Amino acid sequence: MRTYLTLAFLTASALTPAAAQTIYPIDRADILAGSQFDFKVEYPGLQQADGVRVTINGEPYAKVLGRSATFVEREEGKDQSALILRDVALKPGTYKVEAGASTVTWNVFATGPRKAKNVILFVGDGMSAAHRIGARLLSKGIDQGKSLGKLAIDDMPQMALVATAGSDSIITDSANAASAFATGHKSGVNAMGVYPDRTANPFDDPKVEPIAKLLKRRMDLAVGIVTNTEIEDATPAAMATHTRRRATYDQIVEQFYAVKPDVLMGGGLANFLPKEAAGSKRKDGTDYVAKFKEAGYRYVTTAGELDAARGDASTGKLLGLFNLGNMDGVLDRRFLKGGTVKKFPEQPDLTDQVKASLTVLSKNPNGFFLMVESGLIDKYAHALDFDRAVYDTIMLDNAVRQTKEWAKARGDDTLILVVSDHNHPNSLIGTVNDDMSTTPNVAMRERIGVYEKAGFPDYPKPDADGYPSRVDVNHRIAIFSAALPDHYETFRPKLDNPNAPTVAGKEKGTYVANEQYKDVPGAFLRLGNLPAMMNASVHSGEDVILTATGPGSERVHGSMDNTEVFRVIVDALGVANGE
Ligand SMILES: [Zn+2]
Description:
Elements: H1 2-15, E1 22-24, E2 30-32, E3 37-42, E4 54-56, E5 59-60, H2 61-65, E6 70-72, E7 82-88, E8 93-99, E9 102-109, E10 118-124, H3 129-140, E11 142-143, E12 146-147, E13 158-163, H4 174-183, H5 211-219, E14 222-230, H6 234-238, H7 249-259, E15 263-267, H8 288-294, E16 297-300, H9 303-311, E17 317-321, H10 330-336, H11 350-361, E18 368-374, H12 376-382, H13 386-409, E19 414-420, E20 426-433, E21 448-449, E22 475-481, E23 487-489, E24 502-504, E25 511-513, E26 524-526, E27 544-549, E28 558-561, H14 563-573
Parallel strand pairs: 2-9, 10-18, 10-19, 13-28, 14-15, 14-18, 15-17, 16-17
Antiparallel strand pairs: 1-3, 3-7, 4-5, 4-8, 6-7, 8-9, 11-12, 13-27, 19-27, 20-21, 20-22, 23-26, 24-25
Bound molecules: zinc ion (ZN).
């Protein structure tokens, strides 16, 4: 009896295919028909090549996917085997993948016919409702509770709330958030264009196809990627590249070069320069500015050069790099001259970047996709610099307004989407009421006006672009973050440079309050509620707002997932029509 049981057990285990640890794409993935993705099955232990059995809808996977995978017996030299098959695509349908007891199901979807010639995706990075309302108050004004105007980003026929969680966490960063928009797949923190697998190599993870590659390969559309952060930063990079680690800037530049977006604009020149060059952050001697130029790009570094490129009918592909690092926000560029403005005095406004992009991209008779990011909203929100975050939200609004007018003049053939990629825990709670010109003799806390004491702020009437000429007014909006490192709270706008709430602490990897602000009149040390390893405020997990206008925008309504933003884009363009 005993022998019999043992034999039965052995026989059963020999016949039962090993269960996978993970199958990529993951369960419930929505995959665009015809888009390319990598298929990977990871086993927790060692397997024999002829022992692994993976089926899709009951058939051998190789039959369904068209070819056999590479079998890796000892992945990373460890007792763990894997199957990997790159660049496959599927027809529409439901696919059940089985590897032993592990199963995942994919939904492969087609699109309807093309509705839009062009799609423009505006991303307010980290833009929360508080930034939006702040922008409305400052740029439109308010009288007896009614706004004196609408923001262009609000004045759209379609609106939805978008959930932002990643495949690994309820809190997302800009990498996996932008990757969801650009591929329709969830990913993990720091990753874009890939499913983060178990290996350490940041470039071997199972890939999914980002929008820039997809639209060039399938439809020969022009593609523009425009930001005011470093162009290698997560949101712009996710449109075209694949990496498990968003900090791999050198390789992101290499991948941009391989994809060759028609327009590529932002900061981040440092990783385009060979390591010998002044200001370079590259680890090799390759001159990517020279390479892009050789590939036919017009290269511009100032607002004046950008304007000239726009006015020149011969401008085909355009590379604009206006700062070694992040560009400066509009409050510094126009008014305060802080940040790196003195070093880079001729950086263009996001509206100039968009204007030039539309001129260049619309030369393609097949249409185009353009992503525009107002990326510093997030950086300023991290740094608890709410004035600068609100001014860059007004800048985003200006860019959207001019784009809506541009689209209208063409007969509305363009889908325009405006979305935030993740929230910040920022809230508008009232006003700060004190005289900026004098040293306060009442504790600053007691100067916070809440409820009826908030009243209305007294910013000067905004200029033609919606910017009040100063933020250091006596009755100013109070936005606070709910996620804080230790820092000195001054309740005052930072008029010299963007806020820097923390500095490195004595213990490696920790941060403490920046004493630079200790002696600001009324400042006090505010103990944080975040771990000491955090040098700034953090993202939050609430849904974000998506607004839309133009052909294909009717899909934007109600409650949506961030992966569905991709679906709205590809459906408007009819990328997989008749698949
Ligand atoms: Zn962020």
